[in-house]
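Q: How would the structure tokens look for this protein?
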Amino acid sequence: MKDLAGKVAVITGGASGIGYAMAESFLREQMSVMIADVEKPALEEAVARLSETHTGAIAPAVAGVNCDVRIWEDVENLRDETLAHFGAVHIVCNNAGVGSGSQGWMWEYDLNDWTWAMGVNVMGVVHGISAFVPQILSQGEGGHLVNTSSGNGGISPLPGTPIYAASKGAVTLITECLQAQLMEASDSVRASVLYPGPNWLNTKIWSSHRNRPEELAQKVPRTQWNTFEDLRQKFQDAGLAFETTPLEKVAEMVIDGIRNQKFWLLPESDRTNNSIAARSQSMLERSNPDYFGDWQPPKTASETTA
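A: Here is the predicted structure in token form.
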């Protein structure tokens, strides 16, 4: 996969954010790209914008499929539509993801929060693997899968977001096992686990609730979602630096990882290294976890109404 020109990539959650940045990078490499997204208007707009702005000597093409990665039949259709459009598939980026919308003590969460987030973040990856790996192997042309995890869960959890952390921890473990199996099954198909960052990312995951299925709505609706700008404001109000990572940098890391068969797409960061070391040391010493950082527990009902 050193030469990406003429290859075909599939990206879930491709209409915005990291997925869209990856689509742009692949098109600049003269690849053809199929983007999938659950949000149909955003998908159509993304396909139109990408088609208008990216051309090249090999005439890269872009198309889109409306797809809910929770649903196996949708992902099967994504594969079939990709083959119908482009005749092959070489790279699959299982990138679609949501935040759960939970807050407070985890034992009080709405169970639909677990069902929704695990369905997208975990089963979406499983569906992508099951639908595309047999096709990639059968082609005999090489290939690569990139599964989007997160330092939150993939490295160590943020206690205030256990659903998201659990889902991303699962993605890391699934990808590790996938890599081990691909190394036995093929000389030319490999996997990577992607940790976007190392700083905050301005993506639409902060407004995941816009695409939440009605049947998985919270029984007691959450009154407010924190947006990316809300987060930035909290840091500024506290006098803390708020550093961001351009999405283009994440996409560049993906391209480099595919070309060089890197498994850990994990940007250099002292903070990340410290988290890895602290969690590993706790396990080696069999000591109680003390690596959670500055975590604010949820307020009690009396504190909330005071």
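The domain at 8-305 is CATH 3.40.50.720 (Rossmann fold).

Residues 8 and 86 are 7 Å apart (CA to CA).

Upvote if useful.
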